[in-house]
Amino acid sequence: MKTPDLANYFCQVPFEFANLDRNNTTTVCCWVYRNIGVLSEETTVLDVWNSPEAQEIRSSILDGSYRHCNKAICPDIQARKLPLRTEVTDPFYRRVIDENIVSLPSGPKIYQFNNDPSCNLSCPSCRTKLIFTTYGPEYEKMERTFLASINHQSLLEAREISITGSGDPFASKIYREFLINLDGSRYPELQINLYTNGVLFDDKMWEKLHKIHRNIGHVRISLDAVNKEVYDYVRRNGNLERVKRNIDFLGNLRAQGYFKDLALCFVVQARNFREMHDFARYAGSFPKTTAYFQRLYNWDTYSPAEFRLHDIFDPSHSEHAEFLEVLRDPIFEEPHVCLSNLTPYREMALK
Question: How far apart are CA 102 and CA 55, in angstroms?
């Protein structure tokens, strides 16, 4: 896949986003594989926000090289969502571009928390076994580091926080207790985004979150299938019947205006690509709900040989041509469908 020329484009993510990752490292984008510092209960996100590494990554955006970015995977790059530099009108980012500012006067506006990988599922694309950390030195270190970075002042200054891309917010004891105990009325401008597999996000959990009902913005449910046989393979230890009941419930909440956005997410791979049409149709059966597709990535859970078996995006894959045929389906032009980093493959299929 050809990498687009980004010399005249601007990405604001490294200037506003901080991700607390596994091993307590911090990054300024999920698709930049260089951390800006390691956190502890003494060293918070604000301490590394303008580190030399952070400034170097921002410089790579401003010089147009994007040399630290995974351009082939980044959804915004592949979906051509980055604005031209000349189109940027926000006063802060206009000044950043015009004056080449890489050391920022204020902290992150968007936080994503991925330091706790605890999850009730063990999806093959993510991990090789169940991971639950609920006690002991490792748990205590993760909890202290998380709470140090999400203190009262950072919540006041933040615009959004997202939990979690590393596991499930309700399977994680750290994240679950934080969300249940957070008083959203103290932070009326704060938007909380929830990324979940949906198994534990039922009406009882919703009631426990009553103090942040009006803070919740985006809800993304990782589903990856609508057929039980496929779901049981790609969402190991999941429960499709229970998830669908929960989606019915959450869809009603979305219709009532509780969320800014509800998205059903689908990581495309060899095992499930034939379900893409049915998945898009299923998401479209709910009001104001997005079908969000994203390509499979190897998070070091597969050997290179294993990954090639699942990587339907590889032109040498035996089913790659059939995958492109699936992408020709007109349903992917529907307004509720987001192809993100599959966009170039749709374009290729239509040619």
Answer: 5
**Running DSSP on this structure, what letter comes out for residue 115?**
S
Q: Quick one: what percent of the chain has pLDDT higher than 90?
A: 88
Q: Which amino acid is at 227?
A: N
3-class DSSP state of 295: strand
Distances (CA, A) of 39 to 20, 33, 133, 175, 330: 8, 17, 19, 17, 47
Q: Which amino acid is at 263?
A: A
Predicted TM-score of the model (pTM)? 0.94
The rounded distance, in Å, linking the Cα atoms of 140 and 142 is: 6
Angle subtended at Cα 167 by Cα 201 and Cα 25, rounded to the nearest 5 degrees: 140
| Nearest-angstrom CA–CA distance, 176 and 153 | 21
Confidence of residue 1 (pLDDT cuts 50, 70, 90): low
Residue 157, both tokens: 């200054």
pLDDT confidence tier of residue 43, bands split at 50, 70 and 90: confident
Instruction: Give alpha helix (H) positions in the chain.
Output: 45-48, 52-62, 75-78, 91-99, 136-149, 152-157, 173-181, 203-208, 228-234, 240-255, 276-284, 304-310, 320-327, 343-350
Instruction: Give how far Cα 236 sits from Cα of 48, 114, 188, 298, 309, Å.
Output: 37, 20, 37, 17, 18
